[in-house]
Amino acid sequence: MDYSKKVSFPSTFLWGSASAAYQVEGAWNVDGKGKSVWDNYAKVPGATFQGTNGDVAVDHYHRYKEDVKLMAEQGLKAYRFSIAWSRIFPDGTGEINEAGLAFYDRLIDELLSYNIVPVVTLYHWDIPQALMDAYGGWENRQVIEDFNNYAVTLFKRYGDRVKHWVSLNEQNIFVGFGYRYGSHPPAVKDEKRFYEVNHIANLANAKVIQSFKALNIPEALIGPSFAYSPVYPATPNPNDVLASENAEELLAHFWMDVYVWGEYPKATMHYLSENGIAPTILPGDMELLKAGKPDFMGLNYYQTTTVEYNPLIGGVGVAEMNFSGKKGTSKDSGIPGMYKTVQNPYTETTDWDWTIDPQGLHVALRRIENRYHLPILITENGLGAFDTLESDDQINDDYRIDYLSQHVSAIQEALTDGVEVLGYCTWSYTDLLSWLNGYQKRYGMVYIDRDEHDEKTLRRIPKKSYFWFKELIEKNGEQN
Ligand code: NOJ
User: Fold this and answer.
1) Which of 49, 427, 436 for mutating ligand 1's site (highest number of atoms within 8 Å of CB)?
2) Is residue 368 part of a domain?
3) pLDDT digits over 377-427, tens only?
4) N or C: which terminal CB in the chain sees fewer CB atoms within 10 Å?
5) Of ligand 1's atoms, which has the minimum distance to the CA of residue 225?
6) What's the predicted TM-score (pTM) here?
């Protein structure tokens, strides 16, 4: 819909920004922290862009006060960060590391002293290596109990001060990259294992939500963050439209239906069974999934996906992705008989070949609202780009401002439609380690003076987008 007048953002709207422990903290072996799978994986030759890792990252662990002060000066209302499981339980389970808990106490208290709402992610991809060694991590149902024990420890410790909790961050991505595409730890490429692990992760997600509800923490909310990329058909050709239905179900409903309804979509389950890759569902599983209904849907939105018909015989399968920032190097991919991705001629792409589609955020919000009737917290949205530090410490990232500004407009349109959006966290606050893409892919509103191999000064330098966002917050999202 086009609107001549849009509603205002609610006064409680959380204008925020986000990060994740492994991507910012550094201090990988400090104060009793155990190793996570990423501490090992990033050091496997060839695993990440130019061998970059998060040993130091942007040293947020030691510089959190400076970072929080910058947030306060910007007027940020919320900061989303993740807790490193291996700081709290160095072995994943068993003995608690008090120094790890104390670090997050300090961070939370620092945020609260400036009235910045902490949004805490329980799991942002860094399972303790000890659990991987002990029983294969997410592949073993023991992880459900261990993850629950870790989560309940956090709820009890911080529940008095933290009211916004994210359970699993982008389950579809960490399970997919870890067990299907082989590019995140443990670098497995096996469809059957992918679906098995995903089911166990669903159970773990439901279990912690169930435990959270049982604790009855006053005014506290919890939900998963899902990486949702709404699917468009390439043309009105009914075969392409059906391909887009297939993809929307397999790539999105397959997770969100489980989160909200505790049910797997039928056509996808039929496809998985026919191909011998359906997850093993034990008695009690579906009951647990139904018991873990979230309070909100966390939405990580970056792009849309356009698909066309992909024949069963001779169709396109898994293909190369672009982790180098050389535009145009990713290839279309798909599942024969289901769908195949194609370029959308109406949208631009980033240097990493991610579609730029602000209106897609409007579509995402509408689809989630219409299907699940839950409030939505936008837990991530942002532009990965090459930034240039110019003389006088200027970073003129007008392209990022354009990107963010258009996405904020899309949110306001969705609000006008009646969608309940609780807040908007940009990704990311400072520049950080982009997992497989090194440090050159910058998302922050605050520049960090470091590159792939040289930690340089690690100085924090606000970009032009930092000041733009500051003003936007002051005007509570009104853009003219
Ligand atoms: C989503 C992930 O949650 C985050 O860790 C990552 O860096 C961004 N997407 C950008 O790729």
Assistant:
1) 427
2) yes
3) 999 999 999 999 999 999 999 999 999 999 999 999 999 999 999 999 999
4) C
5) 3
6) 0.98
